[in-house]
Specification:
alpha+beta, six-stranded antiparallel sheet, two-stranded antiparallel ribbon, 8 strands
Length: about 270
């Protein structure tokens, strides 16, 4: 991959090299220095440096405190969007319908979009009192069960980035209103394997959510069950959590994230 390409093919070759850099960083178990990148791809240091700087500017690559390079968090955002645009929604629907039949409450499938969650699917029960939401709507992270479920299992640096962007708007007297309180809640979520919105975004509404983890154990979405607090009681939460876990495992198997022989996850031990 030495720098001897004709001018007419330079732009295509530049794209090939940029993707080669991303592939190299993605395959490495640790961040790589400039010399390692240049040597591995048989590039001059100045050329490798130029590609790394462009990728860093677009947040495809980031630099560690020691000056080495690793994949950037923008790729995580692209991964989420690719899952959403591919077949996650279609594959999840049968499992969501089963979840609604088991719990008789509303189920949602949500993904992270910038610093909010977006609802990409919703299945309702045949009951008079239901949660009023719509597909395509967004909500904050700090006061939703789906937002907290996703955040709790993100890499720490991604969580820190989100904390800088969250506006701690109060919706009810129960809304989490400080970064410290949110960090405490995220730790609770990690320990029990599911997140709770205890009337934090709307009085009288309680929600519980579980993250959908990909093959690398990173959250790409979350599934929730929502209903009026007089039906979704604190006593029912463990039972609903178990139904959610079964739902998410079914989606994970259909998406190819886990196999039939590996249906347990330390992040899902409710």
């Amino acid at each position: 991959m030495r720098d001897s390409a004709p001018q007419g093919t330079y732009k295509v070759q530049a794209l090939d090299r940029a993707f080669a850099v991303l592939d190299l960083l993605g395959e490495s178990e640790a961040p790589l220095g400039l010399a390692q990148v240049a040597s591995s791809l048989q590039l001059h240091k100045s050329t490798a440096h130029r590609f790394l700087m462009v990728l860093e500017r677009h947040r495809m690559v980031e630099r560690t405190p020691t000056g080495k390079f690793r994949l950037g968090l923008r790729l995580f955002d692209y991964g989420n969007r690719a899952i959403e645009q591919y077949d996650l929604r279609d594959r999840a629907q049968p499992h969501l319908r089963r979840l609604v039949a088991e719990t008789e409450e509303t189920a949602h499938l949500c993904v992270l979009e910038a610093s909010r969650v977006i609802y990409i699917d919703k299945i309702e029960p045949a009951r008079a009192v239901r949660m009023i939401t719509r597909v395509g709507a967004t909500n904050p992270l700090h006061c939703t069960s789906v937002g907290k479920a996703i955040m709790a299992f993100l890499p720490e640096e991604r969580v820190d980035e989100l904390f800088k962007r969250i506006r701690y708007e109060r919706f009810t007297h129960r809304t989490i209103a400080t970064p410290e309180a949110l960090r405490t809640e995220l730790e609770k979520t990690r320990r029990r394997g599911y997140a709770i919105d205890d009337e934090e975004i709307e009085d009288g509404l309680r929600c519980i959510a579980v993250p959908l983890l990909d093959a690398q154990r990173q959250p790409v979405a979350a599934v929730s069950v929502s209903g009026p607090s007089f039906r979704v009681t604190a006593q029912k939460l463990p039972s609903i959590a178990n139904h959610l876990l079964q739902c998410v495992r079914g989606i994970s198997m259909d998406m190819g994230y886990i196999s039939m022989g590996r249906t347990r996850s330390t992040a899902w031990s409710a």
